[in-house]
Amino acid sequence: MLEPLESIARVREAVAAARGSGRRVGFVPTMGALHEGHTRLIERCRAEAGLVVVSIFVNPTQFGPNEDLTHYPRTLLEDLRRCDAAGADLVFVPTEATIYPRGRSATFVEVPGLSHMLEGASRPDHFRGVATVVLALFEIVRPDLAVFGQKDYQQQLLIRRMIEDLHVPVELVVVPTVREQDGLAMSSRNRYLDPAQRKAASVLFRALQHARDSVAGGERDANRVRQILDRTISLELSVKLDYVEVADANSLESLVVIELERRAVALVAAWVGSTRLIDNLILTE
Prior knowledge:
Strand order of the largest sheet: 1-4-3-2-5-6
Radius of gyration: 19 Å
Low-confidence stretches: none
Order of helices and strands: EHEHEHEHHHEHEHHHEEE
Mean pLDDT: 97
Number of domains: 2
CATH architecture of the largest domain: 3-Layer(aba) Sandwich
CATH class of the largest domain: Alpha Beta
Number of helices: 10
Strand content: 15-25%
Structural class: alpha/beta
Shape: globular
């Protein structure tokens, strides 16, 4: 099984050796509690890089005061086995003091616009924490490419913009959402759901499918598509909707009219019991 590394120096030493031998360095940042979706990210990274680095760090700065930082699942031994099986070469498991040597309120990164809508509106300061930790990890690992999942759609757009705005020499690779048989997007938080909640949660993907089908059938009014999302999810009484949105897939600008030549995405967030889930689906390619 892979040995977890806590030292920045050891990670940089391994990366320097790989790059010195002409290998590309790939990176998959995670918060642990790994599942099949993470496996796909690591496997994609393995296909494109000579050295695959995975980080496991439950980042405290992206959790709000009433969120699940304390209870977030931590399954390091299982995670290390999954990383090994998927083809990772090393796993970086830093402490909080390693990532934030001056504490959580030190230097931070913020991406205007994308940080404060949708997830950012529901979870203030969440994306400040995400952008800060990802940039810190990029500086530690200095990868040639980094792999993210489409499930966290707004997050990957924000990271892409940060890379562009700050001229970070990293290629961003986005892997399609991995789903359960009933369509539920794989998430570390799914393990919080009891059997009844787990069944109810599948309504999120059904709603997204209905929205996509309506667009494929000729619906162009974005508000009507939002209503389809809202009505479908509302039929599941145990699911409490946070938001639905139909937006430009590149900017997340809220759409009035869906144009076939403009890529659009539907995004949803909802509470299933005490568990908050998100999902998305591209409506037009």
